[in-house]
Amino acid sequence: MSTFKSDEVFARLNEALNSFPAGERQELVKQVNGIFEFHLKNPAGDVKVWNAEVKKQGLVQPGHASTHPDVTLYLSDDDLLDLIFRSLGMGPAPGKESELYYDGFETSYLILQIAEYLNVMTDAEKKEFVAKTRGVYLIKVKNASGQVASWTMDMKNAPPTIKKGRVDGVKPDLTVECKDKDFMDLFMGKITAQKAFMTGRFKVKGAIMLGVKLDAIMKETQEKMGFFKSKL
Asked: Is the pLDDT of residue 229 over 50?
């Protein structure tokens, strides 16, 4: 069976649910009180089924629901991504035409989220954000296949921007190299930037103190745009 982009989304949904303390998880289940089944078709014509049991436990897994679902959705793989991204207020899901998207990198979804957060700021908020950060980041991540993707995050000049790759004429104050999964772990709060540097999960070059500010960027994005707030 060929790949499904939505696999990453469902995996993150499950991680988000698992990150809730027991009391908060039960409160979410109580609020949603439903079982959902998703029948997805990718461009190759393959079909995959996922279910979200948010009635008793709070669990997302592949396959059919163990009991009759309350809601069954039949969607293309791309349409599901579009639905989820629009529900987060992030606009359409990223595609290969996106200026920030790299196929096969989970970090692409995170970068899109940060970019959307910057986009919805007021001019005053953008100036304040730049004043607090004052740095240009070059982020280079490697996925499980050994491919490398990079982004330039200019948080020094107003308005703050994110561009794909290294930008000519813009010198990074800090270059960060890491695995795709490790950068996502930073965003999800599984590891702090300081710990990532000290353990070697992040290799850095330049003004290392700017690296600590990555935690603040992740936290602010989670609070303003994040899925399940700071849980994803």
From this structure: no
Give me the residues paired with residue 41 across strands. 47, 76
227 half-sphere exposure, CB direction, 13 A CA radius = 22
- Backbone dihedral angles phi then psi of residue 121, each to the nearest 5 degrees: -65, 150
Non-local CB neighbours of 198 within 8 Å, separated by 6+ positions:
none
Q: Residue 100, SS3? A: coil
Given a contact cutoff of 8 angstroms between Cβ atoms, the answer to whether 180 and 105 are in contact is yes
Q: How many angstroms separate the CA atoms of 109 and 101, rounded?
A: 8
Segment 30-73, tens digit of pLDDT:
888 899 999 999 889 899 999 999 998 889 999 999 999 998 88
Comparing CA positions, the residue from 147, 149, 137, 153 lying closest to residue 102 is 149
Closest by alpha carbon to 35, among 14, 57, 8? 57
52 - beta bridge partners? 36, 60
218/64: higher pLDDT:
64
Distance CA 129, CA 73 (A): 40
Residue 172 CA: distances (Å) to CA of 138, 188, 193, 210 = 6, 24, 18, 11
Instruction: Please answer whether residues 75 and 83 qualify as being in contact, where contact means their C-beta atoms are separated by less than 8 angstroms.
Output: yes
Place of tokens 């995996």: 11
Using CA atoms, how far apart are residues 61 and 14, in angstroms rounded to an integer?
8
Tokens of 164: 């794909």
